[in-house]
Amino acid sequence: MNHNDDRAVSSVSDPIAEAIAASLEQYFQDLDGEAPCAVYDMVLARVEKPLLTLVLARVDGNQTRAAEVLGINRNTLRKKLQTYDLL
Predict the structure, then answer these.
(1) What torsion do the CA atoms of 39, 77, 55, 47 make, to the nearest 10 degrees?
(2) Model confidence, pTM
(3) Local confidence band at 11 (pLDDT 50, 70, 90 cut-offs)
(4) Which residues of 57-76 are buried (b: 16+ CB within 10 A; e: fewer)?
């Protein structure tokens, strides 16, 4: 991919990023002046759990295939599943 291709990809609509940005805007508005904290961890948890759930459903619960789809090690997947009480 050359530099021009990078710009073309970045200008394409990204509905996932747009949904996250809109949700974060609403989150900050809802704080009504309160200081936010641990936003990074909050966002990761809100994205990661449904991601894991949906990918597992897509591969009929096969953890090896889910790990391949996600591009992570199966042991990492199992740790994440335990973290979110999905085992």
Answers:
(1) 0
(2) 0.74
(3) low
(4) eeeeeeeeebbeebeeeeee
